[in-house]
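Memo to structure team: turn this sequence into structure tokens by end of day. - J.P.
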Amino acid sequence: MEKSEKKLRKAINDEKALQHQLKQLTRKERTHRLCTRGGMLESFLQEPERLTDDDVMMLLKLIFHRQDTQELLKKLLEREKPETP
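Reply from structure team:
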């Protein structure tokens, strides 16, 4: 009985450790995605260091509220998702 309880505690602790690792990987992937896409955005801005966060938000709102942008975004999201290994 004691042996079984010890195995159960170990399995629970192992599961918690794996869940923590998964969160870390997800966080790293998100950080990488944000940095990459932020760099893409800056490549299109003239003198990005002179623009405030509010300036960039205003530009993005203007761009993403256009009908043609909304239609393109909808088409892109309708594509089949690639399978992840």
